[in-house]
Amino acid sequence: GLPERVTIYEVGPRDGLQNEKAVVPLDVKVEFLARLAEAGLTTIEATSFVHPKWVPQLADADELLARMKPVPGVRYPVLVPNERGLDRALDRGVTEIAIFGSATETFAQRNLNRSIAGSIEMFAPVVERALKAGMRVRAYLSMCFGDPWEGPTPIEQVVAVGRELLELGCYELSLGDTIGVGTPGHVAALIAAFEERGVEAERLAVHFHDTYGQALANTLAALRCGVTVVDASAGGIGGCPYAESATGNLATEDLVWMLHGLGIETGVDLGSLARTSLWLAERLGRPSPSRVVQALA
Ligand code: HMG
Ligand code: MG
């Protein structure tokens, strides 16, 4: 069966904007966050507290949090890789963070400058301190389906690293198809493998990039397996600067069109969201890759 309601975890301001060539002005970011909440999104990943040289597009994270006006009832998690990032987030009164690991050694090295084991060591005190401070901590796992340098990622390897991240104390694990190579059968097999090792689908979220046009089909496969949290980026913007061949995330509008068509509630006003993506596309100087945004324009 399918769920009655799906929680959309909006990553446009973080995953989307981190991959824009131009640095988006702070005013535009502030307005983008406000418009997303107005469209009915209730979980909006605002930015990243990573090294500013690694992701210059989000170097204004401290200022952004100081400037934005949080809407009551909306959650604004941020990415945090290490204790320095956690300190910055705590300084800004952040209440939810996400750590981000890799299922492959090559990407761990490229994205975090450490091995898989080294990155878990880096995350452990972050999660411990964040939980003590009363934060909610999500975990991402990248390259769950394939990696541009290592090829297909063995399912057992994904499950092993994913369980380690959850065991640190994270409430949810978001399975990232960073380069968009997964297909629906692979999604079902991966979720089944997690369940066999004691991780229920309720603790999993899915994070699809649409490089090969499989993101919606993969999402439907995940919903059929019991997943109810889906990551998406408004207008389909995004990618990962440290992953060759990664394109934008599944577009939130494309996701909402499918879910509403299936009679699944999201709380999102599609017209309002599409207008936001058109507005942002003008500021970014290129059309939104979302088919639904284009169709509604
Ligand atoms: P490092 O160079 O190994 O860091 O980078 P370090 O611990 O050796 O520190 C070096 C210097 O950086 C120190 O300064 C630190 O204070 C400073 P110094 O003492 O030399 O003057 N520093 C910081 N400054 C500000 N904020 C910080 C911070 N950390 C250290 N947080 C590090 C290690 C993890 C920091 C680096 O590799 C990094 O920032 N990586 C982030 C890469 C990234 O953001 N990638 C994109 C997000 S992941 C993604 O998009 C995938 C996802 O969407 C899911 C999917 O699609 O699969 C989530
Ligand atoms: Mg991503």
TrEMBL record:
One Pfam family cited in the UniProt record for this chain: HMGL-like
Keywords per UniProt: Lyase, Metal-binding
Tree of life domain: Bacteria
Ranges of residues in domain Pyruvate carboxyltransferase: 6-274
GO BP annotations, alphabetical order: ketone body biosynthetic process; L-leucine catabolic process
Cross-referenced NCBIfam families: PRK05692.1
Entry's family note: Belongs to the HMG-CoA lyase family.
Protein name from the UniProt record: Hydroxymethylglutaryl-CoA lyase
Organism this protein belongs to: Thermocatellispora tengchongensis
